[in-house]
TrEMBL record, chain A:
<dbReference type="InterPro" id="IPR051448">
    <property type="entry name" value="CdaR-like_regulators"/>
</dbReference>
<keyword id="KW-0238">DNA-binding</keyword>
<dbReference type="Pfam" id="PF13556">
    <property type="entry name" value="HTH_30"/>
</dbReference>
<keyword id="KW-0371">Homeobox</keyword>
<dbReference type="InterPro" id="IPR025736">
    <property type="entry name" value="PucR_C-HTH_dom"/>
</dbReference>
<dbReference type="GO" id="GO:0003677">
    <property type="term" value="F:DNA binding"/>
</dbReference>
<protein>
    <submittedName>
        <fullName>Homeodomain-like</fullName>
    </submittedName>
</protein>
<feature type="domain" description="PucR C-terminal helix-turn-helix">
    <location>
        <begin position="175"/>
        <end position="231"/>
    </location>
</feature>
<dbReference type="InterPro" id="IPR042070">
    <property type="entry name" value="PucR_C-HTH_sf"/>
</dbReference>
Automatic annotation (TrEMBL), chain B:
<feature type="domain" description="ABC transporter">
    <location>
        <begin position="4"/>
        <end position="234"/>
    </location>
</feature>
<dbReference type="InterPro" id="IPR003593">
    <property type="entry name" value="AAA+_ATPase"/>
</dbReference>
<dbReference type="InterPro" id="IPR027417">
    <property type="entry name" value="P-loop_NTPase"/>
</dbReference>
<dbReference type="GO" id="GO:0005524">
    <property type="term" value="F:ATP binding"/>
</dbReference>
<dbReference type="InterPro" id="IPR008995">
    <property type="entry name" value="Mo/tungstate-bd_C_term_dom"/>
</dbReference>
<dbReference type="InterPro" id="IPR003439">
    <property type="entry name" value="ABC_transporter-like_ATP-bd"/>
</dbReference>
<dbReference type="InterPro" id="IPR040582">
    <property type="entry name" value="OB_MalK-like"/>
</dbReference>
<dbReference type="GO" id="GO:0008643">
    <property type="term" value="P:carbohydrate transport"/>
</dbReference>
<keyword id="KW-0067">ATP-binding</keyword>
Amino acid sequence: MQRAFLEHWDETAFTAHTRALDLPNLSPGARVLVRCQTWQPDISLILRNFLPQTQVFWVNGQEIFLHATPEDGVGATRKNLLPWAESLISQIHSMLADELGVLSYVYVDTPRTQGLWSGYLSLGRLAALHRRFFPGEAGLALWQAGFAQLFDSLAPERMEHYPQNVLGDKLSPELRETLQTYFRTGLSLTESARLLYIHRNTLIYRLDRITELTGYNPREFKQAITLFLALWLQGT
Amino acid sequence: MAGLVFKGVTKKYDQNEVVHDFNLEIKDKEFMVFVGPSGCGKTTTLRMIAGLEEITSGELFIGERLVNDVPPKNRDIAMVFQSYALYPHMTVYGNMAFGLKLRKTPKAEIDRRVREAARILDIEHLLDRKPKALSGGQRQRVALGRAIVREPQVFLMDEPLSNLDAKLRVQMRAEISKLRHRLQTTVVYVTHDQTEAMTMGDRIVVMKDGFIQQVDSPMNLYNHPKNIFVAGFIGSPSMNFLKVNVTLEDGIPYLNHAEFHLPVGEAHRQTLAPLSGKEVMLGIRPEFINDDAAFMAAHPDWTLEAKVEVVEPMGAENYVYLSVADENVVARFEAASQAKSLQNHRLAFDMNAIHYFDIETQAALL
Ligand SMILES: Nc1ncnc2c1ncn2[C@@H]1O[C@H](COP(=O)(O)OP(=O)(O)OP(=O)(O)O)[C@@H](O)[C@H]1O
Ligand SMILES: [Mg+2]
């Protein structure tokens, strides 16, 4: 397997190394950017032990950019890669916090284009979205942030107006939690009922209540989008 | 071993204060749960204890020591998270030993601690295995093991169970409770799941919007919630709330609503009498709404009629969703209950179990 370890690069060094690498030979995996709030050399050591398959491992200042490939066992199809890549966010975040007391944020993307530099830039943009819209999260995967890109150009007042119109404070904390869970599970009644420890009928009853209170039915896709965005914007 | 003390601790991100004037004493060896809805500041507070985030103002003590400026490594804490990252190429032994090696702990000491932790967690027979050959529950235990070998003064756990399936979750809940008795260490445990909070905590801190709402034992939170938020947050299904008008008849305060006229229970009369002519918020837990014939016969003046919307069989009991005038009320009736969907049903409020809240301040009146 081809490997490249690079420390303290700038754009020129980055590009030169990218050229030297035989990119099509990189195994399917994820581009990962780890941004640390403080720096210790052990950060590299820990990450390299945690992701021993990693083919590109580039350290610059307080950030690490890598092309991580899964252990065998995780199939290399894109479908399997997404959940694996997403799980890296909380794993890396918690590992560095626990082992070293370092706060870090982790950004991931599965490469569709071959360029490492453009991958790096795209993760940098993801970091900016994270800071603005998801600061409480341990990081962000590109495919979770698609809709947020749309709002990035919107004025803050407009972003307050919308959830106020849709939700106001019509929902009790219980109904709000219900709705959040329902969206988090991708509109799965079974899964949401399980997570909320309630019976499926109770869930349906609560979703009906939400429809009555807001005028939007979360079980209808397009209406769910309205509620989802309102809920999300209210939380930012 | 050590307790924790927060004195007026706040956290600001830029100009945005997300934890406000946090005052709390966690006792040595106490299992303290932080609970509250998403975004209320649980993780932020935990990070301040761990030293991952700076404290904006106020003081934090671990044991006797002011730790505001102590780096995370020297705080003598260990963290457990929901995701259990393990080093794939290392054995279970190696995984547990790695953190200690980084801390330059002597080899013999590492060995002693790893074996001790493995014994406590019942994973001695797995020490030579690689993570790939472990079940989900076993991996979770190795992750716990990694924290235990540190022999910290305080364990910090941020929703360690939230990604697990229901069965494993119940199992790990028991595991952590058992562990904490064996280890005799202070634990700060974050969750947004009130069931978890109620079953695990010695005491619970209920938080909302960065403010502490109440700090109390699980029983006290359930029986004596200080405000409407805590009352609604603790207990499942949630407490029901109805706005009622208080009137005084022959010296006895009554509660008036479109659908009922009920005498205040004896224990609460002194408090409610002076509120005659005012509106208050009545709170009643689903378990104190009753449709048992004997109970209703004994308290005929506590009864009212409601329309049944949905009956949900839970096995030993039914959750029954009712409407009282235009408001929704949930009751827990015994499985023998005759309540049927879309029919009117006679039931009683246990008037001695009612909570009262000020509508303006939302604070409990009793
Ligand atoms: N690094 C940060 N920068 C700016 N705001 C932040 C940051 N981290 C957290 N916040 C904000 O602080 C508030 C508290 O967040 P926190 O993560 O502590 O909540 P929580 O109670 O742990 O929620 P959850 O149950 O969702 O985990 C939220 O509004 C969050 O968006
Ligand atoms: Mg949190």
